[in-house]
Design goal:
200 residues; mainly alpha
Length: 200
């Protein structure tokens, strides 16, 4: 009887896991990719389309600066935004997420295209940068960061929705510019790794 119960639970959990994988693979991931693509294409159209290199630098600068401001705002939002005031919390937290998400996409687009512009002209450059990035990610224990894209799915219903995504999980009250700088270094290495892997 106990064995039948556990095998039924295992079968049910297996079905739920399989359904979760299918929903993520065929619904969430494609929507995420289309969101990114649409954001990048809008920047192609509106950020100095006649000068692609300048457009890349504009995306990189806007993305980097807005991300820093957003990360610095997160501790203030956590401190002063009361989740019990549901409507205000919902509007402000979602607005923060959408602005931060757009900035991250600007940052990715800028860095990705700048790497295309400056680093991947020759396969030796691709190999050298890839090796440096991979070694740096191994030393900083952030290799999993490169594996998570696009397979990392996060829901907007978490209690710690406004907690900054920091590499070394620095407490919010100890957040400093040096921590934000480390985030950008890790993301630069992650982007370079993802960009250069197909070139090899």
């Amino acid at each position: 009887m106990v064995v039948i119960f556990f095998s039924a639970m295992s079968f049910r959990n297996g079905l739920l896991t399989f359904a979760d994988i299918l929903i993520s693979l065929f619904l969430i991931f494609p929507l995420s990719v289309l969101h990114w693509r649409g954001t990048w294409e809008l920047q192609d159209v509106y950020f100095t389309p006649e000068d692609p290199l300048r457009s890349d630098w504009i995306s990189f600068a806007i993305g980097g600066n807005v991300c820093v401001v957003e990360l610095l705002l997160q501790p203030l939002l956590i401190e002063y935004l009361n989740p019990k005031r549901r409507c205000l919390y919902f509007v402000v937290s979602r607005l923060h997420l959408y602005i931060h998400g757009w900035a991250v996409m600007c940052y990715w687009r800028g860095l990705w295209d700048l790497c295309d512009d400056y680093l991947t002209e020759h396969w030796i450059n691709a190999v050298a940068v890839y090796v440096v990035c991979q070694l740096t990610m191994v030393v900083t224990k952030t290799v999993r960061t490169a594996v998570g894209v696009p397979a990392a799915v996060s829901l907007d219903i978490s209690d710690n929705l406004l907690e900054p995504d920091l590499v070394y999980k620095t407490p919010v009250n100890e957040l400093k510019i040096k921590h934000i700088f480390s985030i950008f270094c890790v993301h630069i290495f992650k982007l370079l790794t993802l960009l250069l892997l197909p070139s090899l």
